[in-house]
Amino acid sequence: MDDIKLLIRKYALDNARRYNGVPSIGAVVGKLVGERPELKAKLKDLMPQINAIANEVKLMDVEAQIAELQKHAPELLVEKRVIEEKKLKPLPDGEKGRVVMRVAPSPSGPLHIGHAVVFSLSHLYAKEYNGKLILRIEDTNPENIFPEAYKMIQEDMNWVTENGIHKTVVQSDHLDIYYKYAEKLLESGKAYVCVCSADLFRDFSMKKKACPCRELPKAEAFARWKKMFDEYEPGQAVVRIKTDLKDPNPAMRDWPALRINHAPHPRQNDKFKVWPLMNFAVAIDDYEMGVTHTIRGKDHVDNAKRQKHVFDFFKWPIPTHLYIGKINFEGLEISKTKVKAEIARGKFDDWDDIRLPFLCALRRRGFQPGAFQSFAKDMGVGLNDKVVPAEDFFKSLESHNRNIIDPKANRYFFVADPVKLTVKSAPEQTVNIHLHPDHPERGDRSFKTNGDFYVPKEDFGKIRVGRMYRLMDCLNFVRNTKECIFDSTEY
Question: How many domains does the chain have?
Answer without folding.
Answer: 3
